[in-house]
Amino acid sequence: MTPAPVVISGLGLVTPAGVGVPANWDGVLAGRSTAVRPPQLAGLPVDFACVVPDFDADTLLGRRKTWLLDRHAQFAVVAAREAVGDAGLDIADCDPHRIAVIIGTGAGGTITAETQHRRLLETGAARISALTLPMALPNMATAQVAIDLGAHGPSMSVATACASGATAIGLARDLLRFGVADVAVAGGTDAAVTPYFAAAFARMKALSTRRHDPAGASRPFDVERDGFVMAEGAGVVVLETEQHARGRGVRPRTHLLGYGASTDAYHATTPAPDGVGVERAMRAALAEAGLGSDDIGHVNAHGTSTPLNDVAEAAAVRRVLGRDTVITSTKGVTGHPLGAAGAIEAVYTVLALRHGLVPPTANVQAVEPAVDLDVVVDAPRKNQGTAAVSNSFGFGGHNTALVIAVT
Amino acid sequence: MNPLHHRIGELLTTRFGVEPATIRPDSTLDELHLDSLALVEFAEVLQSEFDVTISDDDISQTASVDDIAALLTAMGAPR
Predict the structure, then answer these.
(1) CA distances from A113 to A347, A349, A400 (A)
(2) Is residue A384 part of a domain?
(3) Which PROSITE patterns match (chain B) (predicted)?
């Protein structure tokens, strides 16, 4: 059986750069960091992060729904609604049993879990919320998106840490390719800018400690980078078989041509030396797409701004695509939205291809010599070529690469 | 409706998103679409808002706003 071609027909975003795709595109093109000192991190060793500004869930979704949903699920539902609307998809006109939902998350409902755990310790078992688990379990963003849309096809949540959003898109594509569903709503979400996560990441020395300059802290590929900046958000796409899109009168322009995944099987947090796992994921995705370095206009890097990630990823990109490769990391603007990152950046990659502009990497003053790639800095760069790669990796050694093309 | 009814209605609206227009003295929690988990939360909200000891076993989904007001009054909540 020949796998069915899969297209990306809808986009949705909730990130520190804004709620909705238009605000996000303006934000990443402007190339300014969104880091702030959110009140919930006050007094912690690392007290800054990128948070979604002015996210008023009650206005966006209505109180009847929001009180039942953790913030990470609220993000996912808002992004999913935008993506379905953008696709022009009327669920009533589809077979709902052929609509799949896969949302990845790194942390699940940790705000709820942390709040209710504190309550358990302070006021006793009789006072914790009956909604604790329906809000905190890691499958609930997926479940709430399915409930909201009325999608009755296969659904699941995936957890590959900071690769979760990209893994979700890749797995959703596989369901479509092999005829399990016609439409998939896929992406990633996380809302883990919490004391628990911030303290734990800080103890790992994974976070930037640039406390005097939060706005300059996320600086992927820069010589002075010293760790990532935590963020939150959601990215969701609507994937469809090309046949399904054409069947409802849509002329699809954006194709998901390749998905590659690999595992370092090396260390829980340190990337394999020289990015050999990353290289395998990228090569697998490109082979599937049938594309080579001449076709790839740019790479939207995982580019976390940690000392280790950025050089390991760059080494892999050089070996696969060459030293002239144009690369950007939108995490300079958004910080690192954990399990949402892969999906958010897949959306940015689609936008870069559609607009013919590669957004700049914020805060880069001097590119780390060991990176040795054509890093886009200061201002957007014209994109050459019709395809691009979006890389995402997760603690645990999970590597993913997506190859996207716009015609 | 007395002030207690109004306060109960306000909690149903602000905390649980119940449409104000649907809340009448004889509306049951079931009619207002509060399911069994929501009932547990509602009891918790009443307990902290009115400073009374109330558990989810004290109210059922067939309880009306009137019934809740009577229960709160019996437990010493101010009218």
Answers:
(1) 29, 33, 29
(2) yes
(3) CARRIER (PS50075)
